[in-house]
Design goal:
Leucine-rich repeat, LRR (right-handed beta-alpha superhelix); binds 2-acetamido-2-deoxy-beta-D-glucopyranose; alpha/beta; 833 residues; 23-stranded mixed sheet; six-stranded parallel sheet
Length: 833
């Protein structure tokens, strides 16, 4: 493909250099100037270059030793005259600055220092090496401006790659680089306008131009039209606005046009048909309006058309059916309407079709299963009607199907049609079947199903017995229906089930003890294996609040047991304490009675525990203070009594979490009088002291949380650059954009020791530096656990304290906001008091 356009000549060149090295090393010795240049380079690195003579970085050592012939050093290539022509040290664990002396290698043709840990500036002298053909310093931590106000003289340059560093200022223009074919400055902090006229004016032979993921702004530049040979143009992940200028549509060699995540507007004009070589067109996350032009007959090689999250209207262009190579068609989240009327028989390469969140009407085309390669189909949130066509029984390639939020009917025929599909792993049928249908009882099959979501369907009947046969099931959501009867105990015997939501039904009876033995929620369980990665967004969207959640991998779901809003009776089983892997337990709004068992403190991973709106009595067990990841705790509206435990996460919970329990006392409710529980009266003084104390702790926590949020966003950003495709898919959700995903990434700190609240608050303050150092910048080897909400790292602070640092994933945003709001309230109390 186009992106590799310049790679072949370079590979040949490197090969030649290596051959030269092999043949020439014996007779040639490198010149003293080159030797000094390389010694200087080595001296700039912490610890030199692995494999170079030990004394190389040592200015005082003489050149008479073995180390004197630099042509023999690892990664160094010389020509017959002994001049260094190549320094090729990619992925060589180099750490340190790039010494200016490197620019002394006057004959250098190839410099490849990609994927190291180089920092500091790019020496300006490197941009005046007249023989340099390849400069690759990608994936380092270099910073500052490139070629700002510096004389650039690179007449031989062919391939220029400074991507994934921290460069800033305006992007470099390699004036005089008339032979340049490949230019990549992606993943930096370059800003300002893209000077297309200067880039293409200087280097009309450019084939690859990548300026992705920077801070470029301004209107889409005119001038790319001069790059007549352009094969790839990538400007994604910037803030470029305006309409596409005409000259872009003269680029008849263009194969890749990637413009996603900008602020582009206007129409995609009919002259799109001039881009007849296009293989991939990605304009996702912009503000394009109007119809998609019906010109795809002129673009027969198209393999990907991605335009989700724009403002496109009109119908699907009929000529798309002519793109027989089309693999990906993603038009999610637009305002497209009409029938889904493509000729699917002609789309034999189509693997991924996402038309979700549009205004399509009519039935599902019965010919869809003729796309024999299709694995993922999302038609959710349209206005489609009718039944799932009987032809879907032959849709054997299908792995993922979401039909959420349409007006399909006949759940029985839907499940019967789909039950035999051998490759189906995820089925999401939420918000359909509005007629109040019965949950079918006579289903068999779904042998490979891992995710089954039939929520919000007004379905009645019982939780059907055929679910017991779904041995691969990991996620089951039947919430918001009218299902009645008991919770069947066999749900606890599904080996892999780690997410169970049957909330908002009319289930009654006791919580089956078997649920306390769900293998995938217990230590050593089998639920976390992720044999194949699911790369398709789908949604679970409880509508009890505005809280929407989106996951694009099954493994991202938080291990959960959600039985809320039913008519469950009896006690909270103490045995639930054995669920050491569960993250969310919601038993709220039932009719549960008896005590909160102290054994629940065994659920050591739990982050959210809600038993509110039941009839529980007795004290809140102090053992719950040991749940160090508990960030949401709600026991409101029960009959609890006694003192609220102190310590651990309890200092962060909101007063509202304890409301409606008149007999409860403690910092979050009424003050505990020593003699009686109804201490309403005059104890104001003591109360103020106490809340002031909490304020100090809370202020420290706020500071820490905010600081760490910055750190996490930076880390996330770095990560997201390398995971561009994943990030894009992950952002394609219903509840937030890429940006909100970034904002929602938070880090929380939980000290492992138990002396919370009464220790030296000054000592507890942790700085961002402490945390980054303590976790080795979130080093993978420091991971001690992971779950639906994020990774847990072990950190050793400077003073020797061991703490668990948790990087929360975006899904927990809402909870974090609530947590923070509460902490802020407490701080305000302090300044008032
Ligand atoms: C540099 O040379 C000095 C004296 O010869 C020696 O003490 C020192 O260890 C050398 N340093 C390195 C990094 O080899
Ligand atoms: C630099 O080396 C890496 C690793 O071998 C390689 O992938 C990359 O293509 C090289 N860069 C250039 C411009 O040849
Ligand atoms: C870099 O080197 C490490 C270890 O030698 C290796 O595992 C990794 O695949 C290499 N990465 C690249 C991009 O070559
Ligand atoms: C560019 O980065 C350098 C250091 O990395 C910084 O000192 C400078 O202020 C930055 N310049 C701009 C324009 O952001
Ligand atoms: C530049 O380097 C990055 C990282 O090594 C690589 O992914 C990218 O393909 C390179 N760009 C070009 C145009 O080859
Ligand atoms: C598209 O191609 C047609 C026919 O070759 C040509 O007349 C027209 O100017 C081209 N449009 C653009 C924007 O280059
Ligand atoms: C699209 O336009 C709206 C209104 O002008 C603006 O708020 C929004 O940020 C734009 N979206 C993008 C992706 O530029
Ligand atoms: C859907 O598209 C609109 C318009 O481009 C955009 O504002 C919104 O953020 C998108 N929604 C998502 C979830 O991406
Ligand atoms: C689609 O359905 C929604 C809700 O069912 C309705 O409000 C809307 O008017 C419908 N739109 C069309 C174009 O039928
Ligand atoms: C089902 O999945 C398997 C494994 O992913 C694959 O080899 C097979 O081709 C698929 N079946 C069909 C009909 O696509
Ligand atoms: C559902 O479809 C089946 C055929 O699969 C049909 O027998 C039945 O009558 C349909 N039910 C309703 C309510 O339309
Ligand atoms: C729970 O049971 C009571 C009495 O049996 C009934 O009135 C109520 O409707 C039930 N609630 C639900 C959500 O089914």
């Amino acid at each position: 493909m186009g992106s590799r356009g310049g790679a072949l000549p370079v590979a040949v060149l490197v090969l030649l250099l290596l051959l030269v090295l092999k043949n020439g090393a014996a007779q040639s010795r490198c010149s003293s100037g080159d030797l000094a240049a390389l010694r200087g380079f080595s001296a700039g690195l912490d610890g030199g270059v692995d494999g170079w003579p030990a004394a190389v970085g040592n200015a005082s050592s003489s050149s008479t030793s073995d180390g004197g012939d630099c042509c023999a050093w690892r990664g160094v290539a010389c020509d017959e005259a002994g001049e260094v022509v190549g320094v090729v040290l990619p992925n060589a664990t180099l750490r340190g600055v790039v010494a200016e002396s490197l620019a002394g290698l006057a004959a250098l043709r190839v410099l490849n220092l990609s994927s190291n840990a180089l920092r500091g500036a790019l020496p300006a002298g490197l941009l005046r090496l007249r023989a340099l053909q390849v400069l690759d310093v990608s994936v380092n931590a270099l910073e500052g401006a490139v070629a700002a106000a510096a004389v650039v003289d690179l007449p031989a340059m062919r391939e220029f790659n400074v991507s994934y560093n921290a460069f800033n200022g305006s992007h470099p223009v390699l004036a005089g680089a008339g032979r340049l074919t490949s230019y990549d400055v992606s993943g930096n902090s370059f800003a300002g306008h893209v000077d297309a006229a200067a880039l293409c004016g200087a280097s009309p032979g450019l084939r690859t131009l990548r300026l992705s993921m920077n801070g470029f702004s301004g209107d889409f530049p005119v001038g790319f039209g001069q790059c007549r040979s352009l094969v790839e143009l990538s400007l994604d992940g910037n803030a470029i606005a305006g309409a596409l200028p005409d000259d872009v549509f003269g680029l008849t060699s263009l194969q890749v046009l990637s413009l996603h995540t900008n602020s582009l507007s206007g129409h995609l004009p009919p002259s799109l048909r001039n881009l007849s070589s296009l293989v991939r067109l990605d304009v996702s996350f912009n503000n394009f309006t109007g119809d998609l032009p019906d010109v795809f007959d002129a673009v027969p090689g198209l393999q990907e058309l991605s335009a989700p999250s724009n403002l496109l209207t009109g119908v699907l262009p009929a000529t798309l059916s002519r793109c027989s190579r089309l693999r990906i068609l993603n038009l999610r989240n637009n305002s497209l309407a009409g029938d889904i009327g493509l000729d699917f028989r002609a789309l034999q390469s189509l693997v991924y079709l996402d038309l979700g969140v549009n205004r399509f009407t009519g039935p599902i085309p019965a010919s869809l299963p003729e796309c024999r390669a299709m694995t993922a189909l999302n038609l959710g949130r349209n206005n489609l009607t009718g039944e799932i066509p009987a032809t879907f029984a032959a849709f054997t390639s299908l792995s993922f199907l979401s039909l959420t939020g349409n007006s399909f009917s006949n759940v029985s025929s839907a499940l019967r049609t789909l039950q035999g599909l051998p490759n189906l792993t995820s089925l999401v049928l939420t918000k359909n079947f509005h007629g109040g249908e019965a949950m079918p009882t006579d289903i068999a099959g779904f042998a490979g199903i891992e995710v089954l979501v039939i929520a919000n369907g007004e379905l009645h009947g019982a939780i059907p017995a055929w679910l017991a046969g779904l041995s691969k099931l990991k996620v089951l959501d039947l919430s918001w229906n009218h299902l009645a009867g008991p919770i069947p105990p066999w749900l606890g015997e599904l080996d892999r089930l780690f997410y169970l939501d049957v909330s908002n039904n009319s289930l009654h009876g006791e919580i089956p003890l078997k649920l306390a033995r769900m293998p995938a929620l217990m230590a050593g369980g089998d639920g976390s294996d992720e044999a194949h990665v699911q790369n398709f967004p789908f949604f679970i969207r409880p509508n009890s609040s505005a809280r929407g959640r989106q996951y694009n991998q099954v493994s991202r779901f938080p291990p959960s047991l959600v039985l809320a809003r039913n008519n469950l009776t009896g006690g909270v089983p103490a045995a639930l304490g054995a669920l050491t892997r569960v993250h969310v337990v919601d038993l709220s709004w039932n009719a549960l009675s008896g005590p909160i068992p102290p054994e629940l403190s065994g659920m050591s991973s739990v982050e959210s525990l809600d038993v509110s709106h039941n009839a529980l009595s007795g004290a809140i067990p102090p053992s719950l203070a040991r749940l160090s990841f508990l960030s949401h705790f709600d026991v409101a509206y029960n009959n609890l009594s006694g003192e609220v435990p102190v310590g651990g996460q309890f200092s962060t919970f909101s007063r509202a979490d304890f409301d409606g329990n008149p007999l409860l006392c403690g910092i979050h409710a009424a003050r505990c009088a020593p003699q009686a529980v109804d201490g309403g009266g005059g104890g104001d003084g003591g109360r103020k002291d106490r809340s002031a104390n909490v304020g100090v702790v809370a202020a420290t926590i706020v500071g820490t949380v905010l600081l760490l949020a910055v750190a996490a966003v930076a880390t996330w950003r770095a990560w997201s650059r390398r995971q561009e495709d994943n990030a894009r898919v992950a952002a394609d959700d219903e509840s937030g954009s890429l940006e909100s995903a970034a904002r929602s990434t938070l880090v929380l700190l939980f000290a492992n020791d138990d002396d919370n609240g009464n220790g030296d608050d000054g000592e507890r303050t942790m700085t961002l530096d402490d945390v980054l150092k303590g976790t080795g910048n979130f080093d993978e080897t420091r991971i001690v656990g992971c779950g639906g909400f994020g990774m847990v790292y072990r950190a050793t602070l400077a003073d020797g304290r061991e703490v668990a640092v948790k990087r929360l994933s975006g899904d927990f945003w809402q909870m974090e906001r609530e947590f923070r709001a509460e902490v802020e309230t407490l701080s305000r109390n302090k300044s008032n008091g």
